Automatic annotation (TrEMBL):
InterPro entries: Macro_dom, Macro_dom-like
GO BP: any one term: DNA damage response
Name under which the protein is recorded: Macro domain-containing protein
GO CC aspect terms: nucleoplasm
Species whose genome carries this gene: Linnemannia exigua
Superkingdom in the source lineage: Eukaryota
Residue ranges constituting the Macro domain according to the UniProt record: 36-214
Any one GO MF annotation of this record: ADP-ribosylglutamate hydrolase activity
Gene3D superfamilies for this protein: Leucine Aminopeptidase, subunit E, domain 1
Length: 220
C-alpha cells in the first residue's frame, strides 16, 4: 500500500489541510490487497486518520504527543526537539507537574510550537505492551477531557526506549481503533488523529498496518 506522502520542506509549518486523510489515500490509489485484516471497515474512522512523515514540532494541530521520561524535564530524541522548539517556559511548566509515571500522560501549553497543547506521555523502556497501550489511552483521555479536535501521535518508545517498531505500531493502531470503537461519540468529535512518523522504516510499517486497523470503508 503506497500512501500519499507529504514531505515537508525545512522550516515550513504543516497544517491539517496539507495532510491527506486515509480515505482520500484509499480513493487515490488502486485497491490494495490487505492481508491480516484486524478490524471492520468504518469510513467514519478512516476519514479521521492520517499518517504524516516529518518533524512534529512543525505541525499546526491542537495537540502533539511528546515521548518523554518520568521526570518530564526533557531529554533526547523527540523530547529534546520539542523542548528546544517550545522554549524555556515549557521546562518551567513541566517542573510543576512533578513527573509522570510510565503509561500515563500530562498536558502543557505548547509555547513557541505551532500546536496548542503538548501531551507528554512516558512509554515503557523495552517491550511492555500494556504500558504502551496505556500511553495511547491516556493521551486520548486528555484529548477528550480538554475537548481537543486533533492530535498527532509520535512513535512512542521506539527510539531510545527500544520498542520494536512493528510491535509498537501494531499496539498503537489497535489501541486507537479500540478506543474509537468504545468511545464513538467522543471519537466523532475528533477531526483528525495523525500518526507522525519520522523514520522511513516507520513509514513502511504504518503503510502496511494502518489498512489492517482502518480498512477502506465499504466493499473490502
Ligand atoms: N518529530 C517526530 N518524531 C520524532 C522526532 C521529531 N522531531 N524526533 C524523533 N522522533 P524517542 P522514546 C521519533 O527516542 O523511544 C528521550 O530522551 C523517533 O524517530 O524520541 O520514547 C526521553 O526524554 C521515534 O520514532 O523516544 C526519554 O528519556 C520516536 O520519535 C526517551 O528519550 C520516539 O523516539 C524516550 O524514548
Amino acid at each position: 500500500m503506497r500512501m500519499q506522502q507529504q514531505q515537508q520542506q525545512d522550516g515550513d509549518i504543516t497544517t491539517l489541510d496539507d495532510i491527506p486523510r486515509l480515505e482520500e489515500c484509499y480513493r487515490q490509489y488502486p485497491k490494495p490487497l490487505i492481508r491480516e485484516l484486524k478490524a471492520a471497515p468504518n469510513a467514519d474512522w478512516s476519514e479521521r486518520i492520517s499518517m504524516w512523515k516529518g518533524d512534529i514540532t512543525k505541525l499546526e494541530i491542537d495537540a502533539v504527543v511528546n515521548a518523554a521520561n518520568e521526570s518530564l524535564l526533557g531529554g533526547g530524541g523527540i523530547d529534546g526537539a520539542i523542548h528546544r522548539a517550545a522554549g524555556k517556559e515549557l521546562l518551567e511548566e513541566c517542573r510543576k507537574l512533578r513527573g509522570c509515571p510510565t503509561g500515563e500522560a500530562k498536558s502543557t501549553k505548547a509555547y513557541k510550537l505551532p500546536s496548542k497543547r503538548i501531551i507528554h506521555t512516558v512509554g515503557p523502556i523495552g517491550e511492555i505492551p500494556g504500558r504502551l497501550e496505556s500511553c495511547y489511552n491516556s493521551v486520548l483521555k486528555i484529548v477528550k477531557d480538554e475537548n481537543l479536535r486533533s492530535v498527532a501521535f509520535c512513535c512512542i518508545s521506539t527510539g531510545i526506549y527500544g520498542y520494536d517498531n512493528e510491535k509498537a505500531a501494531d499496539a498503537a493502531l489497535k489501541t486507537v481503533r479500540n478506543w474509537m470503537d468504545e468511545n464513538v461519540e467522543e471519537a466523532r468529535k475528533i477531526e483528525r488523529i495523525v500518526f507522525c512518523v519520522f523514520l522511513d522504516k516507520d513509514v513502511q510499517i504504518y503503510e502496511k498496518t494502518l489498512p489492517r486497523y482502518f480498512p477502506m470503508g465499504e466493499e473490502q
